[in-house]
Structure formats: C-alpha cells, structure tokens
Specification:
The protein is α+β, with helices and mostly antiparallel strands. The chain is built from 4 helices and 7 strands. It has helices at residues 98-182, 184-194, 207-212, 216-221, and strands spanning 4-6, 13-16, 27-34, 50-55, 60-63, 71-77, 88-92. The chain crosses the membrane at residues 110-132.
Length: 222
C-alpha cells in the first residue's frame, strides 16, 4: 500500500497511505500498538492497542497521545480484517518536545499554586472564624461578669441601706424610751407639737405637766 509515517514527534505521528479504488468499505482502519516486538507474527486485530476509523475520502491520519522514545507499529487496511505485513510500518517516537515539557511544567506549577492558594484561604478563613468566635465569647463573659457585679453591688447597697435604716430606727426608739423614762409628759407634748392634726381638741396642760415642760430651747432640742 505504500504506507509512510511522517512528522514524528514525541507524542504524535502522521500516517499517509495511497487511496485504493477497490476498497469496499466506507472507512479505513488505522491500528497501532507499542512495543511491536511483543506482537505475534499473525498481526491479529485483537493484538493492537488502538484502532481508529476514518472515511475513505481521506488518505492521512495523525496518531496522537503516543509515548516518547517508544517503538510503534501502525497498520492501515480498507477492510475490517487482520492486516498483512505489507500494510504495516514501524516507527519510533522522539523525545518529549521542549515546548510541551515547559507547558507541562507550567501547568503543574499553576495547579500547585492554585491548590496552595485555596488551602491557604481555607486555613485563613478557619483561623479568622476561630478568633472572632473567641472574641465574642470573651466579650459575652465580660458582660455577664459586669452584670453579676452590678447585681451584687446593688444588693450590698440595699442591705447596707436596710441595716442603716434599722439601726437608725432602733437608735431613735431607744432615744424615745430613754426620754420617756426621764420625762414622760414631754414625749406626749412633743408628739402633739409635731403632729397637730392628730388631735381635734386643744391640749390643756396640767400644773404637773407645766412643771415638767422644759423651756423652748430644750423642747426644740428634744
């Protein structure tokens, strides 16, 4: 068939064959396999790793995704049958292209950078959330402590006020008892003077009470 292989690179190769007018099928079968030495001499179709079909209007096909520095065997047939030896060619791929190597490295570096950036963003978000949660909890505890202290202070003030009022009431009661023991009529007079509305009739002092009524200065003091 006059099959030739051209434009061989590390990953691709172009297979060219002459058109055959007697091809009964509507397509050509392009079969290729690496390490052709391991294949059987019968060239069975099942032994080929890949098989591509192209229309009979074409006379060339670019084989892709090859492995660099690898020997391949490629066969072209116009029928879905096992190829013969004159329908096959052997070729060896070249080293990987420097451009493809640089592109692969660039893509790998870009992928690593993107992955690292995403991980850093996730870690930063987790740390920020933890810090905010800790600050909110401390602030809540501080507010609760201030509220508890205010309640305790209010209770203490109320207790002190109640104790002071009770003490003052007891002191006044004791003072009134002492005064009543010394001057019984004076307490009644002082009560009447302080609360004139408590009685409707004027108070008439007896001679005995007049003797016990102290002077104005003493009355005011009492």
């Amino acid at each position: 068939m006059g099959i030739t292989v051209q434009n061989i690179t590390g990953t691709t190769a172009m297979v060219i064959w002459p058109k055959m007018a007697g091809c009964a099928d509507s397509f050509y079968s392009i079969m290729y396999h690496p390490n052709w030495n391991s294949m059987l001499s019968s060239y069975s179709r099942k032994s080929f790793q890949k098989e591509e079909r192209v229309p009979t209007s074409r006379s060339s096909f670019v084989v892709e995704n090859l492995t660099p520095l690898t020997t391949y065997i490629v066969c072209v047939t116009c029928q879905s049958a096992n190829p013969s030896s004159d329908q096959c060619r052997v070729f060896t791929t070249l080293e990987r292209d420097p451009a493809s190597v640089s592109n692969t490295k660039r893509e790998l570096a870009l992928g690593i950078w993107l992955t690292s950036s995403v991980l850093l963003l996730i870690i930063a978000a987790i740390l920020l959330y933890g810090c905010l949660h800790l600050l909110c909890r401390r602030r809540r505890e501080r507010l609760q402590g201030q509220n508890g202290t205010s309640k305790q202070d209010h209770g203490r003030v109320w207790t002190k006020s109640a104790a002071y009022a009770s003490e003052e009431l007891g002191r006044q009661s004791q003072l009134m008892q002492d005064t009543e023991e010394k001057h019984p009529g004076t307490i009644q007079l002082a009560t009447i003077i302080e609360n004139p509305s408590a009685i409707k009739e004027p108070v008439t002092l007896t001679s005995k009470s007049r003797e016990r009524v102290p002077v104005t200065g003493q009355c005011s003091a009492i």
